[in-house]
Amino acid sequence: MSSLNGRKRARATSTEPEDVKPSLPVFERHASLWYDDGNVIVIAEDLGFRIHRGVLSRESTGLAAALAEPPGEPDIDDCRVLRMSDSAKDVDTVLEALYGLKGGFSQSRQVPVATVSAYVRLGVKYDIPRIREEGASLIRACYPNSFQAFAVLVDDDLDLRAIAWSVEQECEIALLILQHEELLRDALPLALYGCAIQLPSVLTEKMAGLSHVPASSLWDLLARIHVGRHELLQSRRDFTFSFLSQKPATSLNCAKPVACSAVLTDMARNHFRQFPEEYDNIADALEDADNTIQEHSAKACKSCVQYWRDTHQAGRRKVWDTLADHFDLGEDKPDEGAPGEPAGP
Ligand SMILES: [Zn+2]
Q1: End-to-end CA distance of the chain, in Å?
Q2: d(CA 291, ligand 1 centre) in Å
Q3: Are 124 and 229 contained in the same domain?
Q4: How many domains does the chain have?
Q5: Residue 109 pLDDT > 80, yes or no?
Q6: 281 plus 300 within the same structural domain
Q7: What percent of the chain has pLDDT over 70?
Q8: Distance from the CA of 302 to the center of ligand 1, in angstroms?
């Protein structure tokens, strides 16, 4: 084995016992993860990684256990062969992270959802704490469980997001969280919310494109999203934008009731008028309309502007606090067989 970086075909050809099955492992060497001093060849699909048993055993109890088993096939160049059932891309992603390639963890500006997904799935499957926690922390960064963190997030540019964003990726993350609820439960309400505020036709089209996801999981997600969407639409009216219809409409200390009432009417009409063009916002019950209220502040009295802003922000907060309830996630599922504990506040 001489070439370190060539993607050459490696084939076990040397003297093998005669009873060895004829299908010798054929694989492509990984361009970077092929070390001359490696003592394990990990093969996923048709990609081989010549790496180190000590590294795998240190990082992963699952892989340590697999390596402790009797080998399933002959060594290649004195390297133990470990064949994995995962995709080459997933294994590549995880091993590159473990070996600190491509800048290692959290160095890149924005991580693709496929990377996060591989971290969580393989991190859980093989018990690789560093990988699993990296995936979880990237998800928590984008789907925080505090209102303050969420507020900072919505003010940020999408380009600054830890995980690259698109509608189908919002679905993929939600599905990933649903499959690993024990690890990522805190992130679930906001992930479902992210799906629920999308235009339904776009959402379902993107979901249909997730061909690797079982249909039952898609239906489960779709049902949760639709229940939540319905409730969020009402919450938007009853809490977030209740200042548009509340009684009294203007502050008790209003300095110019006629002008302030006119401003409110104007805002209410504009608020509704945006939906034909931006229908996908219709369930966005966490929308921050503070700037919109501010834009109308010149024509209204200070007291009313403050009254509307306070009502609006209190409404958003209320939606945030009940977000899990919208998706029927309000109470923790009791553990099987464990005595029920009173639900938290
Ligand atoms: Zn007023």
Answers
A1: 63
A2: 18
A3: yes
A4: 3
A5: no
A6: yes
A7: 84
A8: 7
